[in-house]
């Protein structure tokens, strides 16, 4: 067999495709994947401890099961990635993990324990314009209870979300979940005589901009409309002045972050006539507050905020949004705001799309990829102490049996290890081990094999010591982190290095 290095010359003169990835999709290597997997592992452990069982649904769903994401009935290719099956039915990659749950629950309702408590994680796909931090494929993690209309079910999801975000790597004061109830606005609009669904939707979209525009901008959008800084004019909801005044008092409590949940509800109740639906919403929020208190959920971890408006055509009752409070910066050190990292609420009509019968449901979802990115932007390594494998250096083809034996012994001892299988020299192999993040390089040269020894280079120690040595000759003479010892002590010595207690020369 030839030992010549592979040629760099083209194999063929035929046209070659450009090596490029699709816009909005990412190629991710070890540290990013390890970070996301560790987040999922930790959060999944919390969910299972709370009695939620895992469920995995397929990446594809029939397009009509996704309902609200289909603007074009003939070709549903906006919002989702869709294709036509061989029986002419449209299938689409799942847009989230909730619509597949609703389909699964409707399909298997007779055999499921009720309420059905499940959690799920996996990639979702959205056919939207990509941008900074906005991808067409990303990982979500959900927990849901289907079949319970009790406000305690909402409270449990909220408490679970708090513990899950903590397990994912956030301190208790680094995220806050804001809670409201869609029925508050339903009651407010109903009491004000606003019955037109389109007018209500326009008003809710205006209120959803409260954080960005403040009351002045929102009030304009609730009235005649608003001219923004770019010169674009947005037509308003044209609500009566008396209703706009009620909304203003209603939203005023949102600015009082120091209020307890109970005090916030009292402020909302005193804002004006909220109608029957609004009174029902207040009772539900009071019950949620009581349950959160019993479960020991701090007032700052979950607070009531009537400005929260999520899923305008999706949620039917309580809604919540998790906001990241952790200071974050971009790769140039400039402050960057991540904002929402998750959310959820009650969606009692989703299963009914399939069955015609209302089935109550509530849940929480957070973006795993987004949270991992936020942790990195805060200066943390969400992958933790992730290391590459121990690398066994290959000096000659004649001694390959010794190298294979060493790497097999390490793996059998439960230590991640690899044998360098390229054809580069010693210097390039050490550079390879460093790029792999290897903690140790194992060297079995001819002298070591003849003497029954092995030389170990503690690369972690070398990296640390290199920061304190300025002279290259001094560095080479010191050979930091390097030791030669009997071959039968290799596993124990490497395990000691990995545990942070390197054996001295």
TrEMBL record:
Enzyme class: ligase
Signal peptide positions (record): none
Main localization category: cytoplasm
GO molecular function, one term: histidine-tRNA ligase activity
Region (Disordered): 1-31
A single BP term in Gene Ontology: histidyl-tRNA aminoacylation
The protein's name: Histidine--tRNA ligase
NCBIfam families per UniProt: hisS
Alphabetical keyword list: Aminoacyl-tRNA synthetase, ATP-binding, Cytoplasm, Ligase, Nucleotide-binding, Protein biosynthesis
GO-annotated cellular components: cytoplasm
Gene3D superfamilies (alphabetical): Anticodon-binding domain (3.40.50.800), Bira Bifunctional Protein, Domain 2 (3.30.930.10)
Keyword Transmembrane: no
UniProt cross-references to InterPro entries, sorted A to Z: aa-tRNA-synth_II, aa-tRNA-synth_II/BPL/LPL, Anticodon-bd, Anticodon-bd_dom_sf, His-tRNA-ligase, HisRS-like_core, HisRS/HisZ, HisRS_anticodon
Organism superkingdom: Bacteria
Pfam families, per the entry: HGTP_anticodon, tRNA-synt_His
Residues noted as binding L-histidine in the record, renumbered to the chain: 96-98, 126, 140, 144, 310, 314-315
Entry EC no(s): 6.1.1.21
Subunit record text: Homodimer.
Coiled coil spans: none
Protein's cellular compartments: Cytoplasm
Domain Aminoacyl-transfer RNA synthetases class-II family profile: 48-389
